[in-house]
Design goal:
By secondary structure, the chain is α/β, with parallel strands linked by helices. It folds into two domains: about 1-80 and about 140-195, Rossmann fold (3-Layer(aba) Sandwich); about 85-135. It contains ten helices and five strands, in the order βαααβααβαααβαβα. Strand 4 (about 155-160), helix 9 and strand 5 (about 175) form a beta-alpha-beta unit. About 25% of the residues are buried.
Length: about 200
């Protein structure tokens, strides 16, 4: 049986979540219906689930969600990862800090040259700094929990977060493209139905 570890991006990224429905409530209900028919197990670490609940009102669907999605954290104290992954992460963080500093210096010079600093300069600084520092990098405990749980369970990581996908790939974790998750679930349900009718 296939296993999937779900990241919040499956339910909060508009591009990804749109495959399930027009609005968050409808989309979540569609996901839950498909998950019940799909011969697969779905997991979400507690930290990710708590983060998700701050982003979406789950009160009406929380029990249904917890019926089809196992809420389970990775066993952090027993998991081991290669030290090479840690060293690469440190090198990546150092490169990003240097890049962020160069962006800050460039914007400081631009601001110094401007008589009246336009607000666009600060906006550009924020956007470029965020891009340099965070894009493609695992930068939260929730992200790490999801990657580690996928590693521990030998599950497929369903996420639109490029940093999580990059780390998961480096660690040999199976990945499913979040944009295709609905179709993957439908394919699995159809295959199960065909097997059942063939008996």
């Amino acid at each position: 049986m296939r296993r999937f570890v779900l990241d919040t991006s499956v339910f909060t990224n508009p591009h990804v979540f749109g495959q399930f429905g027009e609005d968050p409530q409808e989309g979540l209900q569609t996901f839950l219906r498909l998950a019940q028919r799909c011969p697969a197990e779905f997991y979400m670490p507690l930290s990710v689930y708590e983060e998700f609940r701050t982003m979406r009102d789950l009160e009406e669907l929380a029990a249904d969600f917890e019926t089809v999605v196992w809420i389970r954290s990775p066993r952090r104290f027993t998991l081991t990862i290669p030290s090479d992954i840690l060293y690469e992460f440190i090198d990546e963080v150092r490169r990003r800090i240097d890049r962020g500093l160069r962006i800050a210096e460039e914007h400081t010079k631009r601001a110094g040259a401007a008589a009246n600093m336009p607000p666009e300069i600060i906006t550009q600084l924020r956007e470029r700094f965020r891009e340099a520092m965070r894009k493609g990098l695992v930068d939260s405990r929730e992200d790490v929990d999801a990657v580690l749980l996928a590693l521990e369970l030998d599950a497929e990581l369903a996420s639109a977060d490029q940093g999580m996908r990059k780390l998961g790939n480096r660690m040999g974790i199976k990945l499913v493209t979040a944009d295709y998750l609905r179709r993957v679930m439908e394919n699995l349900a159809e295959a199960e139905s065909a097997r059942g009718s063939g008996d």
